[in-house]
Amino acid sequence: MSSIDLRLLRYFVAVAEEGHLTKAAQRIGIQQPPLSQQIRALEKELGVTLFNRLPRGMELTDSGQALLTDARAILAQMDATVAGVRRIARGELGRIAVGFTESASLHPFVPSVIRAFRQAAPEVVLTVEESNTNELVEALRKKQLDLAFVRSPVGDAGGVTIETVLVEEMVLALPASHPLAGNGRRKSVALAALAEEAFIMTRRPSGPGLYDTIIAACRAAGFSPRVEQDARKNLSTLSLVAAGLGVAIIPASMMHVNAEGVIYLKLNAAPGLSAPLHLAYRDGEASGVVGKMIAEARKIAASV
Q1: Theoretical Cys-Cys bridge with 261: which of 73, 119, 125, 242, CB 3.0 to 4.6 Å?
Q2: Do 168-274 and 95-165+276-303 fall under one CATH topology?
Q3: If we measure between CA atoms, which residue out of 254, 234, 232, 248 comes closest to residue 197?
Q4: pLDDT for position 154
Q5: How far is 8 from 22, CA to CA, in rounded Å?
Q6: HTH lysR-type domain: from which residue to which, for each copy (predicted)?
Q7: Per-chain mean pLDDT for the chain
Q8: Which CATH class for the 168-274 domain?
Q9: Tens of pLDDT, residues 7-28
């Protein structure tokens, strides 16, 4: 059966179901003489008579009846296979492993993208993993992840596409009782005004891109930040600020975190101080489920 052209099987099923060459030809969109020739070619290849030719139609023989059952099953399976392959290509079926940094996950954009993707492709198996940017990029290279939401990578990102989806400002987090807070009346402060402050920063390995951005911005403002506390995670940074151990510069999206005793100020005269959010995926693999999530991300980013 594997040597038989599937097209011949489709012609055969059409004739069997219509019981008439002319009606079958109309159904499948070809002329009657070529269809008749194709049916005879199928009979010759199988070495059996599939139809009794009647004055007003075509009647299945016992051999034809047996073939009809199998032909329907074969064609149904093939159609299902083709449909499945096309759904995979459209990103509607399959698996996807998604990574994100902690600071990226705190931005409303990331859960919005994942939620939109789940709604658009509910049958895709989705797994998620949190790590730092460099580890996520390396996991992409090793094909342990398919896509990641990351901050700016530091070092070699060869083989991985880094696509910027949005850029947010960075703000100052400081204890509510801090003199710079102005009893809650102040809304902004110059970066240079922090020259004598104790800084709390997330450890560089956890977020090298943001870490280096903050250091560079401070130096451009005329000072090197005095880092007195290293935090493992961004949320830990806010806890240390609330405890009065120093100030921190954080992505603006973290202002949504309800950290009691912490207030936020805009930073003035701080060139280059921003927090980009990127999509990272392997070069040339922005198709299927990965392409679908990228499309959802781009759509949401365009509306932000």
Answers
A1: 242
A2: yes
A3: 248
A4: 64
A5: 16
A6: 4-61
A7: 88
A8: alpha beta
A9: 889 999 999 999 999 899 999 8
